[in-house]
Amino acid sequence: MDSKPSVPHSPPLRQGRDFIARHGETVFNFARRMQGHHPHTPLTRAGFAQADAMGAALREILGPKPRLTMWSSSAGRALQTLAVIAEHLELDWHQAHHDDRLVEIGMGEWSGRYYADLASEANGFLDLEHGLYTRPPPGGEWYDQIAVRVSSWLADTDEDSGDRLVIMHGMSSRVLRGVMTGMNVAPRFDAPIAPDLPQGSIVRIERGVETVVHWGSGRDSAPA
To answer: For the residues of 143-193, what is the DSSP string, one character each?
Structure first.
């Protein structure tokens, strides 16, 4: 009998604050294509504007040259977003850490497909109200697998001191936030999943409590 990956029931509680941010809009988002774990999909002008607003918001909160550990998904769109934010904060982008465990949900055979085309073949594949898939993508990931990898990242970085910034994606950030705030596992999705937020949004998580500190102007309910 196959066993499901184990999802932690309680979040690790660091001493510092975690600022979890969703990258800006990309060309795939604009065209309504399945993006998933595509490593390099560039930001649009709107995406750069969202990153600019995120940087300004974080500078207002943290001030210039804050003591901040920077983390990013290894995907190009997250690294581009971080570059703009780091400039606002007067920090060296090259000092950021990258980790594949922070990438977006793997889309398997759906990767790169247009939403409209997929909707005609797999009706109801996306729960529009909650912005979540209703079934695993063929050959792709499910939410419990994301929970395991982001939980592994949390365990390995628990000793990061002070505040840190984490730039990632729509689906994977929702699972990370769910794990970090100790949300119950949603039986339908086999993982704890936080509410959807638009692209360009930032939350602060401190001792397991989440606060939205910047509401992005981008899309919601779309994998990014």
So the answer is: HHHHHHHHHHHHHHTTT--SEEEEEE-HHHHHHHHHHHTTPPPBTTTTB--
Cβ-contact 85, 50 below 8 angstroms: no
pLDDT in tens, 62-81: 999 999 999 999 999 999 99
pLDDT tens digits, one per residue of 106-157: 999 999 999 888 888 878 888 888 889 999 999 999 999 999 999 999 999 9
- Provide the 3-class DSSP secondary structure of residue 108: helix
Nearest residue to 168 (alpha-carbon basis) of 61, 82, 46:
82
The pair of structure tokens assigned to 162 is 């002070």
Average pLDDT in the 80-87 region? 98
**Which fold, 18-214?**
Rossmann fold (3.40.50)
Angle formed by the axes of helices 45-62 and 76-89, nearest 10° = 40
Domain boundaries, the chain: 18-214
CB 204 within 8 A of CB 54: no
Q: Give the 3-state secondary structure of residue 80.
A: helix
pLDDT of residue 2: 47
